[in-house]
Amino acid sequence: MATPCKYYDVPLKKLNSKNAEGLGNVFTDFEDVEVELCKWPNPGKRPLISRGGYGTFIEDEFKVYWRGSTVLSGDHKSARGGAAGKAVVDPETNSNYVLVHWLSAHLDAGEAFIPKNGEPSIFLLAPPGDNVKAEDFVALYSDGSYGISIHPGVWHTAPLPLSGEVVYKNKQGSIYATVDCLLLKEQDTCLKIPLRKPEED
Hints:
The chain is mainly β. The chain has one domain: Jelly Rolls (Sandwich), CATH 2.60.120.480. Helix content is 2%, strand content 45%. It is built from 1 helix and 17 strands. The protein has a 10-stranded mixed sheet with strand order 1-17-7-6-5-4-15-9-12-3. Strand 4 and strand 5 form a beta hairpin. It is globular, with a radius of gyration of 17 Å. The termini are far apart. One of its GO terms (molecular function) is ureidoglycolate hydrolase activity. Keywords: Lyase, Purine metabolism.
């Protein structure tokens, strides 16, 4: 008989500079936000000459939307889409949550997100590191007026809208050097994120 999946209640906090420390930079102006680029590794003694060993960044828009109880991302020009999470209702509290078990990290650059039309959203993040655990994650709530430019290697999923369909402005590295973490497969764990505004800052 299969072992039941474990659920980890991810702390929900307000998106601000203090709560995003070590994860990324909070911003309001998408046009001016910077995305960190990582230099291409050079194992030899001969110097890199092409653009100094850095890629470029690209701008895009993509949508994240609810289809039934599943939240999906799509219309990416430069990245993968697919299921970001699944909504559940806690029978004891009658509260709405989303379950997430697939995360990714970009090794060539950071990534910036902000809702195009100011909708509330949640950013699920954990610091860089190969041995990421459920306890490393935090959910940062934005009222829609703030976005975040995450550092290279930060674990994340697509932004999570509280409802409906949301279009996000996006900047990320052109190389798209990405690794995945499948928490359900690797640690028999799903992340449980409340779909609401945090009670405290």
